[in-house]
Amino acid sequence: MKHAAAASTSGTAHQVSDTTLRGFVGYHMKRAFNAVQADLSRTLAPFELRMLTYTALVLIVDNPGLRQSQLADAMDMERPNLVVLLDELEARALITRDRVPTDRRAYALHATLAGTQLCKQAVGAVTAHEKRLLAGIDDDTRAALIATLRQIETGHAKEESA
What is the CATH number of the domain that holds 120? Predict the structure, then answer.
């Protein structure tokens, strides 16, 4: 079992036991997420995208005309925080925001040609990132992992709505 090194008050390093934490699924999920996020950040850096801007761009490319409120819901983000992401994508000419004719308060989101092309390249890089990251995991285990994570996600959503 791996233990993190930490400095003691005397300045010498000693091992910190995380044995208790290793008994919790959430702790393993967080550690795994940290590894995925670090590698994903490196993967997206050449495209000048972060995880959130990448996610927003993919959702906009895959759902032309998506409304800002729908995107906020899909990303589980507060609308004001989403606006900052959209401003960034729009400033880079990767998306457009167009007023919805039937609802002047709403905006429909569309990817530009540059946004669609960048998205395609980034998705290719992220696909390679996942392939690298999951190289030692067989297809059945990967499918079981995804099913388990979905179960946790949907179970959490049911608790929140109850």
Answer: 1.10.10.10
